[in-house]
Amino acid sequence: MNQMTTTMSTQSHEEKIIREVLNIFSTHLEQNNLRKTPERFAILEEIYRRDDHFDAEALYIHMKNQNYRVSRATVYNTLELLVNCDLVKKHQFGKNLAQYEKSYGFKQHDHLICVDCGKVLEFCDPRIQNIKNMMGELLKFNVTHHSLNLYGQCQGACEKTQSKVS
Amino acid sequence: MNQMTTTMSTQSHEEKIIREVLNIFSTHLEQNNLRKTPERFAILEEIYRRDDHFDAEALYIHMKNQNYRVSRATVYNTLELLVNCDLVKKHQFGKNLAQYEKSYGFKQHDHLICVDCGKVLEFCDPRIQNIKNMMGELLKFNVTHHSLNLYGQCQGACEKTQSKVS
DNA sequence: TTGTGTGCAAAAGCTTTGCATGTTG
DNA sequence: CAACATGCAAAGCTTTTGCACACAA
User: Fold this and answer.
1) The pLDDT of residue A84 is above 60
2) B157: pLDDT strictly greater than 80
3) Global pTM value
4) Which of A64, A119, B45, B128 is 20 to 30 Å from the Cα of B144, by its Cα?
5) Which residues in B lie closer than 8 A to residue A84 (C-beta atoms)?
6) Last residue within a domain, chosen from B51, B84, B102
7) Is there a contact between A136 and B149 if contact means CB atoms under 8 Å apart?
8) Residue A55 sits in the same domain as residue A117
9) Which domain holds residue A116?
């Protein structure tokens, strides 16, 4: 279920993850003859210090607030690069607004969205994999990824928390 | 799998469906004190004469081409009404563009989207229902609907058909 | 007749693009 | 130093909104 309950080791674990993804990104950029700019690494690091889901504008604003000079264009550009090398996942939770989340080191999962308060929960179910395999074979598709969102109301506790797990 | 292979009886079956949905919509409008305008019924009928998936603009253009005078605003307004009374389903297939399809008289299904050519196939799998039930209970959510999209490449036949039928 | 619905165009919101400048390799 | 990336602002696209007019009840 993807909770890393915050323990004493969390800090260093987060730092370890960050070092790893920076390396992975660096290698990816090299292999594709793309340039290693400070903006690209700063955005990646920022994403991995955040938790859960965010949109491009929120990421942009958050970097601005930290006095990091970056442009929207670069944020969008870098997000696309990161999605391409599987360090970030892109979602749409029923609105015309792309939501992103870090993906390296986290278990594959799907989402449950409260249509009233926007809260996003995560869950894993192995049956999805079976469905992907079966349908790919049946319909002669090479299934590469999927998106499963369940929508509904969170019973009772609609205003108590936002979509963060942290 | 939602194919109504076109047979001699298809015409009258389609007409029957159309009469039914017009009645359902009419009742829905009455019950909610909404007005029965010719535009609303024309849009519903147009949708049920189309096949597969379309976006708001395509629907608007198609009605214009038939010399039916309607505005984009009314198309959007009516689509929302129809989604609310479950006569039309709204989807997002990975792009910032809402796609719609008629839903009355068709089995609940999910989608398989070719990321190369945009083709959309449909499939049914009862395991989804189980997942919805289980996760709703587990996470204390009242799950009302869901969206499952599988993405991949359709093997071989990518350019042969477009995603439109109309 | 009253007020909801429509059409039109303008505005809004997210994302992409063009161009001059800056920086990586 | 050459090509690519960035920043900024403008443009693009889908969707929403405001307002005057039309028409359903």
Assistant:
1) yes
2) no
3) 0.86
4) B45
5) none
6) B102
7) no
8) no
9) 110-165
Q: In which element (H, E) is residue B97 found?
A: none
> Would you say residue A59 has pLDDT above 90?
yes
Which of A53, A80, A102 is the last residue before a domain boundary?
Answer: A102
How many CB atoms sit inside 10 A of residue A111's CB?
20
DSSP annotation of A145 reads E
Burial environment of residue A125 by CB neighbours within 10 A (0 to 12, 13 to 18, 19 or more): middle
- Same domain, yes or no, for A51 and A123? no
For residues A94 and A139, state if they share a domain. Answer: no
| A36-56: pLDDT as tens digits | 999 999 999 999 999 889 999
Q: CB of A150 within 8 A of CB of A112?
A: yes
Count of A–B CB contacts within 8 Å? 118
Give the CATH number, domain containing residue B73.
1.10.10.10
CA–CA separation, A86 and A55 (whole Å)? 17
Bases of strand C lying below 7 A from some protein CB: 4-10, 13-18, 23-25
Region of residue B86 (left: phi > 0; alpha: psi -120 to 50; beta: else): left
Q: Residue B2: its chain A contacts at CB < 8 A?
A: none
Q: Give me the B residues in range 99-158 that sit within 7 A (CB) of strand D.
A: none
B91 & B55 share domain: yes
Residue B12 Cα, gap to closest chain A Cα (Å): 30
Q: How many domains does chain B have?
A: 2
More confident: B70 or B3 = B70
Q: Are B157 and B114 in contact (CB under 8 A)?
A: no
